[in-house]
Design a protein that fits this description.
By secondary structure, the protein is of the alpha/beta class. Helix content is 29%, strand content 19%.
């Protein structure tokens, strides 16, 4: 009864407010259009499956992976079920996330590698043993199906992290693949196009011969494995059907492309984040994209009730060192490559962390100009920290509010690395190399509302949530045209239009706390009701201005949506 009374009172107050606003000579302006999802403005959450949340402790140990490891170099128990539980709890929706990028979930090598860091198991997912099966430490096919269906029901897309460039390292339990499939030398020197591709990235990481068009037989170790698992005949039949249908040679890359697009047909995933892109011929990605597009359309036709929108299959590429200033080109020194013409709609932007120390306007104006001109119809994925970037912006987590504001309000898509929103430490004593970036998600600090560098974790999270939900609900934030309206106080507008849909927002940063006056003449008509997504207050436009009193130095203004 109390809940019903509360809802009734809220409705009466809303009606009273709207009536008051419409008592002027101006008609109330209300935006009732549903915002479209566009990848160029997505808010993507990147997590290491093993390091996020343990929803199924019974799968924590497989293949007798019980050797002592270097610090943070073994499996920690995170799994697919744990991610699903957090989706159901509303964690991602509260953060304004509309896509989750999972680290690779393929079955990993069974053995451990020790390169002077202590034993390391393939908890990160980048050391594939079998592209046709899931890593049991992460979960089962039923777990993955539940994850994807739960995500889609919550309006969240799923990106799989995929690899064609290399297999996992060789161990006593994981023999090297045949010479017809892989090379084990030379090691890359990275000083030319060829020295990035026809070589191994590091020692003991066999490189797939993606340049080869020669027919090759299946690796013996896969045949033996599949026979033991009772699925050899099924896998062989499907492989032969794929090659008969496509006419491709039975070359190494086409086997892997087949295995990757099978995931789309089976699960209806929405896109790939592609690993080590510049270390494979760009034509390979064009071939993958062509097959992925067909597979996604096939899945949509077979599952019309599960289709989220009319977006085509999405691919974002990791070309290490690519920055937005390069526009459509990555330069190897002896060759320039346009990856946007080879399957990629979006590229990870390694430049953003260097831009982050600049002023808001310097960053926002630069990105808007490039994205709406040289990169029009394409996009970049901005990030501030990641699983393998040892020099992220704000490594010490001293600027969590500034980091969130710059990342989530910048034109382009945003990549939230797990724990960015809770100041999870990126410096862990006793670790070597990138392990320091890969600690378990700091749920305990969030639960305790710990103080990190003088900031309460829950306050940091709330800031990221407000900005993230604003970005999610308004594609103009990431996908619109930026225009500064005032330097002091600093506020700007973003405008996005596609067909009949138009979205306009006004954002103010570093404002005085208390009463704020912003000139919105020519943007919103008098009588328009705006919502400040930061304070949740409603305000009416009068004489081309809004006056709003809040305890915050941020305002996030947009047409109030009646839902």
């Amino acid at each position: 009864m109390n809940l019903l009374k509360s809802k009734a009172i809220s409705l009466i107050l809303l009606i009273f407010f709207v009536s008051a606003c419409t008592s002027t000579n101006n008609e109330l302006k209300v935006n009732t259009q549903k915002a479209p999802f566009i990848w160029e403005a997505a808010n993507i959450y990147f997590l290491l499956t093993d390091r996020f949340n343990n929803g199924k402790p019974e799968n924590d140990v497989n293949f007798e992976r019980i050797k002592e490891t270097g610090k943070l170099r073994g499996f920690e128990g995170g799994d697919i079920k744990g991610i699903t539980l957090k989706i159901k709890e509303g964690y991602f929706n509260d953060l304004g996330i509309n896509a989750i990028w999972l680290s690779p979930v393929f079955e990993q090598i069974h053995g451990a590698v020790d390169e002077g860091t202590g034993n390391t198991y393939a908890f990160h997912g980048y050391w594939t043993k079998d592209w046709t099966s899931l890593e049991p430490n992460f979960g089962t096919e039923a777990d993955l199906t539940e994850l994807i269906e739960t995500a889609h029901k919550n309006g969240i897309r799923i990106l799989f992290d995929v690899i064609i460039n290399h297999t996992g390292p060789v161990t006593e339990l994981d023999p090297v693949w045949p010479e017809s499939w892989v090379r084990t030398e030379p090691q890359c020197t990275y000083d030319s196009y060829k020295a990035n591709i026809e070589c191994t990235l590091v020692k003991n990481l066999p490189d797939i011969k993606t340049e080869s068009d020669e027919n090759v037989e299946l690796p013996v170790q896969l045949i033996e494995k599949w026979k033991k698992e009772g699925r050899y005949e099924k896998e062989l039949k499907e492989i032969n059907e794929f090659f008969e249908l496509t006419g491709y040679p039975k070359a190494p890359r086409f086997y892997i492309i087949k295995w990757l697009v099978d995931l789309i047909k089976k699960y209806g995933i929405d896109g790939f984040r592609v690993d080590t892109v510049k270390h494979t011929e760009e034509s390979v990605w064009k071939e993958l994209f062509a097959e992925a597009i067909k597979a996604f359309e096939m899945w949509k036709e077979e599952n019309p009730e599960k289709v989220l929108d009319d977006n085509e299959f999405f691919m974002v590429g990791e070309v290490y060192g690519y920055g937005i200033s390069g526009k459509q080109i990555y330069n190897f020194g002896d060759k320039e490559v346009n990856y946007f013409e080879n399957g990629f709609k979006t590229m990870i932007n390694f430049e953003f962390k260097y831009d982050a120390p600049k002023s808001y306007e310097e960053i926002f104006a630069k990105y808007s100009d490039i994205l709406n001109n040289d990169l029009k119809d394409y996009g970049v994925l901005n990030y501030l920290s990641s699983h393998d970037d040892g020099s992220p912006f704000d490594k010490n987590r001293e600027k969590p509010f500034e980091a969130g504001t710059k990342l989530l309000l910048c034109p382009g898509a945003s990549q939230v690395y797990y724990g960015d929103e809770t100041s999870r430490s990126l410096i862990i004593d006793g670790t070597i190399g990138d392990a320091t970036l890969r600690s378990f998600m700091n749920w305990d600090e969030l639960e305790e509302n710990a103080q990190i560098n003088g900031f309460a974790v829950k306050n940091i999270l709330v800031h990221w949530q407000k900005l993230g939900k604003f970005r999610k609900e308004h594609p103009s934030v990431g996908g619109g045209v930026h225009e500064m309206l005032s330097e002091k106080p600093y506020y700007f507008k973003r405008t996005y239009q596609s067909g009949d849909f138009k979205d306009v927002v006004v954002v103010g940063l570093d404002l005085n706390k208390g009463i704020k006056e912003l000139n919105v003449q020519g943007i919103y008509a008098d009588g328009t009701v705006l919502k400040d997504y930061y304070s949740s207050k409603l305000v009416e436009v009068k004489e081309g201005k809004i006056n709003i009193e809040t305890d915050f130095d941020v305002v996030l203004l947009a047409d109030y949506e009646v839902k």
